[in-house]
Predict the structure.
Amino acid sequence: MAVLRPLGLSLYAAAIELEEARRALPPGTRLLDAVLDYAKRHPANAPKVTVAQAVAALLEDRENGKASVAYLAKLKSVLERFAGDFTGTLASITGPTLGEWLRNLTSAERKTQGKTKRPRRQLSNRTILNHAGSVVTLFKFARSRGWVSREIADEVAEVPTAKAEAVGEVGTFTPAEIRKILHAAPEDIRASLAVGAFAGLRTEEIHQLEWKDVRLSERVIVVGAHQAKTGSRRVVPIGENLAEWLAPHAQNEGPVDPSPTSKATTHRWRRIAIRAGIDWKHNVLRHSFISNRLAVLQNPAQVAFEAGNSPAMIHRHYKALVTAEQGKAWFAVDPSNTEADVLPMPERKGAV
């Protein structure tokens, strides 16, 4: 009783508290060890920052750091969902808690045109890995601000997740197909198609691209950090054939892509291909550029630099998809129309 008196506990209250704590601990675990571990993770002077507050601070920090629009949109989407599911403090989240959240992630319900709801579906392993990466970024940022302990940040970073599924066969166009599509494209969108096919920019990067960054005299396209998915500035060379495609449309300023959104851009490209009798494949312009560029250069590091990707990714997914001769033929596709039956197709009135 003398020992308990400074703590304000009666003998009965101490016995109850000890009994409850021991029941909650795994067998063989000392109560003192559990308490010391908790104290390390939750310092008494640490600020009680909620998940929502931490997310808002991170997004503001990245926006001030001129992160790309695409990166910010993805980070915001994931972390605002995370904050919606965890309304307590950031320090209260453990590795197992995060692991369970990731395993149970499903897609959001979406209404179709007929106003019927599509059922939720389990997210792919690749998407789950992306969500985990965004959460780890949040905890690293919180650790740098002193909002969570190193132990919590490390535990979150080490949460096991499933491996990403193997990427299926990368779809590409042939030189004849891209020539047919480009000649069938309306004038206003032909430049953006050519940039995708012969410079390999991502659709979102093309949508944000300004003519002032297309430097034909220097034969380069400058992709700013705010435009790039990775948030890193890069310079992409303009080949001879791309220069010929761009020259008739070049302006001193204004957007290269006239569509209101990158999604609308993709829809227009797809419709042009379909009207030309060619199947559209996912991300096909970028896949075609990388595959053919690698076949010509035989240098994964250089292609990775130009495409804003990693050499390992380039080597793993794009090696030996086309031959060197096919690659040379791809970058020889120029505006000269060698197919007399290929004519620009008018778009349906009112199409996006």
